[in-house]
Amino acid sequence: MSHSHPSLSRRERQILDVLYRLGQATAQQVLAALPDSPSYSAVRTHLRILEEKGHIRHSEDGPRYLFHPAVEPETARRSALTHLLNTFFDGSPARAAAALLDDGAAKLSTEELDRLQALINKARQEGPTQ
To answer: How far apart are CA 35 and CA 63, in angstroms?
Structure first.
């Protein structure tokens, strides 16, 4: 899940993505999760900059700093999804779902298909939103 932050470098976006995926992490855990790993001090610098820009915050766990995204993952997910829908699918969730299903229907498990069906049924019961 990549987030649209034009003010971030590629590496800062990668670090933010790691934190969204893990929920929280130490600088060492972030370093371990990054591709073509930079130095530990570079990661510390990026974390400090991300915190200054307001994208992440930290809490102290004994001697360690734990870093977290400043925005809840659910909020970030919705915001990224809205951006994606508006940019590529004219704001239509149905078009996005169709694109995902066209590409990946064969990869869906029975449980995933059942869950999608349940969501569709729930949306039907709640009626159209206009």
So the answer is: 26
One digit per residue, the tens of pLDDT, for the chain of length 130 reads: 444 555 788 999 999 999 999 999 999 999 999 988 889 999 999 999 999 999 999 999 899 999 999 988 788 888 888 988 999 999 998 888 888 888 766 788 889 888 888 988 998 898 766 5
Angle at 62 between CA 76 and CA 20, to 5 degrees: 15
Q: CATH number of the domain at 10-69, please?
A: 1.10.10.10
pTM beyond cutoff 0.85 = no
Distance, in Å, from the CA atom of 115 to the CA atom of 123, rounded to the nearest integer, reads 12
Report how far residue 102's alpha carbon sits from residue 115's, in angstroms, rounded to the nearest whole number.
Answer: 17
| Residue ranges covered by each domain of the chain | 10-69, 89-126
In the chain, which ranges are continuous DSSP H helix?
Answer: 10-22, 27-33, 40-52, 73-88, 93-104, 110-126
* C-alpha span between 79 and 64 (Å, rounded): 31
